[in-house]
Amino acid sequence: MENTQNKPEGKEKIKVGLVMPISDVPEFPKGHWEEVRGILRTILLEEPNYEIELEMVSFSKDANIIQGNIVTNLRDLELVICDISNHNPNVMLELGMRLIFDKPVIIIKDSETKHPFDISPLVYLTYPSNLNYPEMIEFKKDLLGKTYHTIAEYRKDKNYSQFLKNFGKFEQKNLKEQSSIIDIMNGNIINILGALNKMQEMIKNERFKSTTEQSTYVPINPYLISSGMGLDLTANPMLGGYDISKALLTSKESKSITIGDSASKK
Predict the structure, then answer these.
(1) How far apart are the first and last CA of the chain?
(2) Where in the sequence of the chain do the CATH 3.40.50.2300 domains occur?
(3) Strands, E, within 154-261: which ranges?
(4) Residues in contact with 76: Cβ distance below 8 Å, sequence separation at least 6, in sequence order
(5) How far apart are CA 1 and CA 125, in angstroms?
(6) What is the pLDDT of residues 47-59, one digit of tens each?
(7) What is the distance between the alpha carbons of residues 208 and 214, in angstroms, rounded to a whole number?
(8) Which range among 6-15, 87-96, 104-113 shows the weakest confidence by mean pLDDT?
(9) How far apart are the C-alpha atoms of 264 and 52, rounded to whole Å?
(10) Residue 137: CB atoms within 10 Å
């Protein structure tokens, strides 16, 4: 799939958007996504026909709202590369937006990530999750070839459709009507992205909290109930256990077990 075209004297500059996870996750070493981003930039520098500038779709040289940059770049850029590794919710939302705009997108993922069913008609490029160099060579060839041919096909075909064509024909609105619809979408999507960012921050804080607390979780022991010992299981019984540091043992004379605010007496 590698492009064998002769390298032109003056290469056309193209800005390519990148959608991928940013924050570190427990499944990968610290700085993993930054390393992946660097590898992608290095690969695309070797594209012989274009001078490619790869930037996150959230990036802008102007002092704009980040969510606004994301929507604008997903709508306007000629090509976007999307890394769906680890099924990051922000990434999946931004991929969905790009697919609705029906413009070229190259989807990549690591070897450990499963194919999402909802976008199964699309082609994926896979790279080794451990970023092993020998295995990355094949991925490099595929990415360079896919980049060139995707741009060429999009420019050649005025009716280009990468995703929506799988679901029938869709009539395009005129530019004025389409712009007003996009403006409405922008506002709604910005709100969704903001909410997702807050959710991710909450999850991150909870993970940090759980690693700093010296609590021990054990499963509920039926013997404690039958022996008549009272336990306060207010520490999230949905986890299938209770927090010993918060469990209150009463005397053996007690015949109740408390979960939250409710108690069942024997």
Answers:
(1) 73
(2) 12-204
(3) 217-219, 241-243, 256-259
(4) none
(5) 12
(6) 999 999 999 998 8
(7) 12
(8) 6-15
(9) 67
(10) 10
